[in-house]
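notes to self, project folder thing:

trying the whole complex as one job this time. last attempt i did each chain seperately and stitching them together was a nightmare. two parts in total, labels are on each line so i dont mix them up again. if this works i'll redo the older ones the same way
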Amino acid sequence: MKPMPISIDTLKEKGRRLRIDSLKATTEAGSGHPSSCLSAADLMSVVFFNEMRFDPKDPSNPANDRFILSKGHAAPLLWSAYAEAGIISEKDLLTLRRLDSNLEGHPTPRMPWVDVASGSLGQGLSAGLGNALAARLDNIPYNTYVLLGDGECAEGSVWEAAALASYYKASNLYAIIDVNGLGQSQRTMDSFDVNRFAGKFRAFGWFAVTVDGHSYADILEAFDKCRREGGTQPRALVAKTFKGKGVSMLENLEGWHGKAIPKPDLPKALAELEQPLGPNEFNPNPRTGFSKQQVEATIDILVARQPGESVATREAYGDALVKVADKDRRIVALDGDTKNSTFSEKLLKAHPDRFFEMFIAEQNMVGVAMGLAARGKIPFVSTFAAFLTRAYDQIRMAGVSQSNVKFCGSHAGVSIGEDGPSQMGLEDMAMFRPIPGSVVLYPSDAVSAERLVLEAARRRGICYIRTSRPKTSVLYANDEQFPIGGSKVPKKSANDRVTVVAAGITLHEALKAASKLEAEGMPIRVIDAYSVKPIDTRTILAAAQETGGRVLVVEDHYEEGGLGDAVLEAVGNQASVVKLAVREIPRSGPPEALIEKYGISSGHIVAAVKKF
Amino acid sequence: MKPMPISIDTLKEKGRRLRIDSLKATTEAGSGHPSSCLSAADLMSVVFFNEMRFDPKDPSNPANDRFILSKGHAAPLLWSAYAEAGIISEKDLLTLRRLDSNLEGHPTPRMPWVDVASGSLGQGLSAGLGNALAARLDNIPYNTYVLLGDGECAEGSVWEAAALASYYKASNLYAIIDVNGLGQSQRTMDSFDVNRFAGKFRAFGWFAVTVDGHSYADILEAFDKCRREGGTQPRALVAKTFKGKGVSMLENLEGWHGKAIPKPDLPKALAELEQPLGPNEFNPNPRTGFSKQQVEATIDILVARQPGESVATREAYGDALVKVADKDRRIVALDGDTKNSTFSEKLLKAHPDRFFEMFIAEQNMVGVAMGLAARGKIPFVSTFAAFLTRAYDQIRMAGVSQSNVKFCGSHAGVSIGEDGPSQMGLEDMAMFRPIPGSVVLYPSDAVSAERLVLEAARRRGICYIRTSRPKTSVLYANDEQFPIGGSKVPKKSANDRVTVVAAGITLHEALKAASKLEAEGMPIRVIDAYSVKPIDTRTILAAAQETGGRVLVVEDHYEEGGLGDAVLEAVGNQASVVKLAVREIPRSGPPEALIEKYGISSGHIVAAVKKF
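result (full assembly):
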């Protein structure tokens, strides 16, 4: 184990220095949350300098214990811990919140030691669980420590993570709750009631210990107790603390949240912390001998659909998921109790160890995926497209984290039929398109669905795959390629009058419309915009020019933010664009009836083309 | 109290009939979730026909007890209860899931008795808490009963609602948990462990009783116990049940979720339920004498800003909130522990009884607002724009519910500065615009902010108000009007070369750019698109035509889904549109530096205009 135990005096000294560092950095920056740093400084000292095993010189050591600052506004405390561990210099701390610095106001993975961005509260425990599950998959004995504020425990996502961590017996996961009793604008809901917090964690299946968060003996004993008695349970230290602890002008006072000490007052505050409390030492004790994850060379799959076969894109998603997972061990899947609808259950059957049932808790599911991705996995997250909205904040933060997470939203649009509007994903593309660097893919047949799963697996970054509930006929040859940013032109003649851009279900409506119109001597161009973002501007523009500047976009999505807007952006003023999209809250009814009623059927396409 | 107690035999008979109704309706529809109806039929019978007091002839009786089916997929059971209560006819039940029927696959308020749409799981308890708080505000002694599935209790939003209901001592709120142990794709996380469920509710401050959900004596006694011993706590009945109870081909079997019994098998299933169990009676016992909420005539406010004054739109939001609330008693406010940043705290100070601190739990906050709106309140929900993403599913469902909820997202865009990307709302407009019927407002000064709060209060439906962190100078006269769908043209001359469309922070950058360009003899038109949805197409098109078809849009938002897309849609091919928007994940830094770095400053506007 450890070369020699670190003394309490040394830990106290580290705590003192973390406080000083945090105050200096925030005062220099002129903003930040020093009081939220001070409440957790003693907990942080014990976690970083006694509990955790890591190599400060090698952030990529696969056996480093992981630390996630869920209460991201205490970022200066994290940067200070890095400084005290020798990861960054003390001078770096004074660049806090500067445009040229990676020491941002809230942690982001621009700092290599940070696994996931935090600052949107209540998300860290899910990412920590992702780390913990990755550790188990890779059979590496590292632990993950997540520091949470008490205020953020009001977020339901914390309890989603708590339930799942217990379900998965994540005994390699520690939650440290900094119960300082003060929120941003008033006392927290449960104030200093650490027993109530501990009771909640216990009810959710955790081993929970309450401690005085400013007593080093207490904190050390609590960690020991977790090791002795925690068994297979995830472990929580619920610590009573004071916001601003150690500096009388801040300590346990309201009105100081998110405020730096003004420069003139800093010396007085520091004076209260000037006395060294012990030796300033840190002898890291990293685990060695664990090999880094092997990164696959580019993978490929074989697609073997029959011409004329009718297969839902959601089912092809499941088939392809197994194929890419066969080739790349990093690929894992998560689902929110919809695996028999999204067909991710195919991966469960093929590789049970690499499938995680996340139950009906989408926020945690996405958070866990971020943690898995941070540890080198390629997670595919699936549920109904509608229910991914439940995790938009996590998806947004996956964007900030530049996470390598793949999303599949099934049952997109009114074409799901009778289940009604609550189950119809109609704003999913609008949700994913704004994320910088995101890719939005929308297959219309089994071949393109399989190919796009492959493309998503190969691409680093956030990819969203939109699948449909109904079966659709196979349109493409098995060896057809579907590069991201491309498109297909399944219908084309020299005399096309209008370009119809469609994807997914509406592509089939467009092809039906094309046949009808052709019979009437009015040929149209049909573009399969399977890559909604990035959109194939070149092909669409060229088609628009060849069809008299007439473009019709038809999509099973609300009119704002989806394919129509992507096409508008692509063609600009170089064509006249008409959009067919869903424009009101749909009702329950048969798929065909809904496609008709909400104006995106082949009949509506025919009418719109004629109107042009 | 009751005219005479209803007998257990009568309740059993109602339960039997609810089962038969649910089976017939789903088999006729050919889809639906009969097994999920059958597990809850006995609970439903007691709730509807013994516990609740309501007037089946008057859905608008303000003292009716409320029922929310959080497990919305059991909609046929709800419709069956309506039929058994005489609200609809038994014949209506056979229209289930038809396009021309209000008996949708999941409940929506198209059926007058439904307060909020359900079907996205885990949201009902929040709406129930909203009802419960409304009851207290209006001093009417009705109760709200929420029926939840066990699977949906994995959703964190349930625990957000649980914590807040306890905090607000909502003893007029009952949660009934139908623990049938089976999810969609497998056993639930906690299976039949009703004690674990009850333990969770108790840890969250509830009075919880476990029952056999198929024993009428048990259920009745549990409700009595809640009344006797529940005190000021919200109450939970945790009921062990069997999915498909009463029909042997379904009972407690996997593989039946979301499947109707095929027509040929229906007689066999019904045969098991054919024996009447008691008299079929229901004598409603509504509360009388409670007056309906008075609806205000159109309200108005007085705006009194000083020319040259500098005020953040978020602060003006708070000022106006008090003014509209002074005039209309229906107006209430909710905030997620950011009230000193969003300035909703002004309402807390002015009308403490009409402000609800919802702590850091945005999903529940929005759900509670939906419940309050369903009971005639006009809730204004505020937090950072970024954190409204946390509640996108609830916002989406507020859309499906056609709720009268107002949202204010503060701290929009990179202009917040050093706190960094996690705190910057950059996809908020993209999120709100797709919701059918939604209004998106974006004031740029204190006068427009106040006026737009008034417009939002007057308008029925979902309105989103986007406010900014920095102070901005007052641009408009106090009596200027800002109708929804309008715009302003603060800079205009006959020789304008380009139309710049901006809003919020970027309007001030556009005006700065206009001054610089005017000095260089290059006048531009500036449009304040304060109504992003609906957008003022007429004014923008006219300006585009008058400025040579050159339109520049500049916004503190990601490039997809915001003002730029709204303008693209408005002008179509009648102008050339260039967008300036945020195109990457921003960093921490000073507001001005970020506006510059991410390409939306006056300098970038000048350059883009020149490039045109």
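what i see at first glance: The longest helix of chain A spans residues 8-29.
need to look closer tmrw
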